[in-house]
Amino acid sequence: MHNQNRKEEKTWGASGAVSTFHTTMSGKSNKPLLEVKNLKTYFHSDSGTVKAVDDVSFFVNEGETLGIVGESGCGKSISSMSILRLVETPPGKYEGGEILFEGQDMLTISDDEMRKVRGNKISFIFQEPMTSLNPIFKIGDQLSETMILHRGMSKKEAWEESIRLLDLVRIPNPERVVGEYPFALSGGMRQRAMIAMSLACEPKLLIADEPTTALDVTIQAQVLDLMNDLKKKINASIIFITHDLGVIAEMSDRVMVMYAGKVVETASVQDIFLNPSHPYTIGLINSKPDMSTSSDRLHVIPGGVPDLSQKPSGCPFHPRCDKVTDKCTKEFPPETAISDQHKVFCWACQGKQEEGSKWQKH
Amino acid sequence: MAEALIQVQHLKKYFPIKAGVFRKTVGHVKAVDDISFSIRRGRTMGLVGESGCGKSTTGRVLLRLLEATEGTVTFDGQDVIGANKRAMNSLRTKMQIIFQDPFSSLNPRLPVSEIVGEAMIQHKLVANKAEMKDKVIEIIGKCGLFPEQANRYPHQFSGGQRQRICIARALAVNPEFVVCDEAVSALDVSIQSQIINLLKDMQDEMGLTYLFISHDLSVVKFISDDVGVMYLGQLVETGSKDQIFDNPLHPYTEALLSAAPSFDPTNRQNKKRIILEGDIPSPAKPPSGCRFHTRCPYAKDMCKEIIPESKELEPGHFVMCHKAQSKF
Question: Which of A19, A79, B262, B323 is surrounded by the most beta carbons within 10 Å?
Fold first, then answer.
């Protein structure tokens, strides 16, 4: 369906210069753009039910970057894929909860309505730029597709716009690259093309799932720099998923730490790194050798990430936790608010409030 | 100063590019192009660089898993590249490797006891299967696995445990030198720290010498005594850990260090980051002169034409750069 009004509203429409859509400068509001409430995404298999996302609630404010960090199998990707209903069903199943985006529950809207959201209001950047680009279509065709579909552009307009988008993501010679096939591009360039594609319809929410994990450090630095730059320009909210704490520190405003399908701590990026509360967050930060300090031995979280089909009872982290009590093995802890923005799910943290509030600034 | 256990001189490894009906060689990928370094006994040398810079190839050529095109490698004074089959066989027990991917580097059809014990039998370090089993249980115990796990198969283990099996396999023959090729890169952060500590413990216990290949600078900084930085097949800078991390002299090292994301969210605004332009050139067609000149923020005309020599600018600190050698 082509919505002409929507097309004209678009400030980065076909005729505007790049600078015109830079006018809506970043203003972080406290209005949630996306609210996920008690989301449960389970996978049913013969060997049991895997609770990949188990009663997870979070929100993303307008213009804000939420970083989701955790180890493999913690449910960070499934949480974000659930937002666009990208989890394959079966074996996956949305067992409960709500995902509110612009007043609509993403879990209940029809497939047609969902298709209008995907790639349009919410877009996705995947980890592997090689497998997420179609090898048999030109970059320009792949970029144009969403614009023809969602913005009602003609093929020619969309092609022109593709060139401008490629230029926006700092691809040299966009006029040439637009006619290339994905194999002709290097990893960093492909990821930029992916970013260009995700920006094609000026999304309100951008979900980036490990966008730089497959890239080399110097290329990662280029892409992160680009994303930080674009963040200021387009004023979209971003959900940034990664296992790399350094990237989280670099990119996010607020951080959510996940473990075994559960949210264990959320706080501003300063609080997460300077005043972490959950034993898992503390362990995770200490496990990684820091470039700026030197020590002789690394902190270790004993044991391994649990198999989600046999998730430990109570708090799933209890078998690895050094502050474990009897209570931890029986019941998942309720939310403890350490400060306004800093929430932690841990029995040992109860009663701990505003201790290190020196980083609280408003 | 400890003696050098591994000595590498002018090592080259070229892979031919073949094309056409007759598979004629039309060029070479210069994966490793004239590198020299040495590793002292009981120390760890970290090798860093981006993908395609030749760091893994270097590790493999050292162990003769790939044949060198040119150059020499000596292990404890003994020539490795020219060693005959028998000499090489005995060298193999002294030099081992741990690979990156613990999923594809273990044979799924063999139980752990066979995987770890195979080399012991092959090199006649044990008399019979019963003795092998005892040894295997001892070594996997050191690596943090339980005796009853010796009869299990690789698929029954998690990634971190599999990497422990790989380490046990490498250490089973009492090696002196171990190449760790991205040994912790595929692991989760909390598992990574366990494995890094294990590698350190084993080094203390068995007096091992490591070549630690990784793209993760923070891990390399943690584990290494000396560090080499590779770019497009060349070793552009080598030195002690402190020299490289506190006083990088090559512009590439400088950029690499500044590109690594920092943990401190408070200084992200005022941190000046060097963003390198462009991509890594293909090693099949490396740029002329200094190979880094296409991306170097300081490049001058001479960099495009003259290949810089590797010069010792501080004791033990070698740099391959015209600017660092203050030629301009």
Answer: A79
| DSSP symbols for B267-308 | GTTT----PPPSPPPPTTSPPSSSTTTTT-TT--HHHHHSPP
Rounded alpha-carbon distances, angstroms, from residue A130 to A137, A166, B101: 13, 17, 20
* A339: in domain: no
Contact call for A224 and B261, based on CB within 8 A: yes
Domain annotation covers residue A358: no
A110, A256: one domain: yes
**Residue A274 belongs to domain spanning:** 1-121+203-304
Q: Which residues of A touch B275 (CB under 8 A)?
A: 218, 221-222, 225
Question: From start to end of A137-236, where are the E strands?
Answer: 205-209
The ipTM is 0.79
Mean pLDDT over A322-343 rounds to 89
Please judge whether B161 and A299 are an interchain contact, meaning their C-beta atoms are less than 8 angstroms apart: no
Which of B307, B179, B313 lies closest to B249, judged by CA? Answer: B313
How far off is chain A from B78, nearest CA to CA, in Å? 33
C-beta atoms of A288 and B193 within 8 A: yes
The pLDDT value recorded for residue B204 is 92
Structural domains in chain A (count): 2
- pLDDT < 50 stretches in chain B: 1
| B194 contacts in chain A (CB < 8 Å) | 300-302
Is B156 in CB contact (< 8 Å) with chain A? no
